[in-house]
Design a protein that fits this description.
By secondary structure, the protein is an alpha+beta fold. Helices cover 19% and strands 15% of the residues. The longest helix has 9 residues.
Length: 105
Amino acid sequence: MKRLFRRGSSAPAAIQGQGPCPELAAATGQDPQPRTPGECEDCAALGEQVWAHLRMCLQCGRVSCCDSSPHQHATAHFHATGHPVMRSHEPGEDWRWCYVHSTLG
C-alpha cells in the first residue's frame, strides 16, 4: 500500500479510497503499559542488549526492537500476532505505525 502524506506535512493523508487508516484510528486512547520498559523483550530473552530503537505494540504492550536493529523483533511480532499498530518507545517520540497499511500516524 502506498503511503500518502499531505503536502507540507509529515502527517498521513487518508488511505486512497478508504479514508483514514482504520487501524490507526482504532489505536487512539490509553496505551497499554509496556511489558518490558526500556528493553526489547525478545533481545533480553536472547541475552542481547544491542538494538537501534524500541517500539511498543499498542495491542499488548510488547516492547520490541525496530527494523534498523539486527533482529527486527517489532516487525516479527506483527507477523506472528497480526497486532497492526505500534508506537515509538523512545523518549520524546509519540508517533505510531500501522503495519497493515504502512502508514505513519
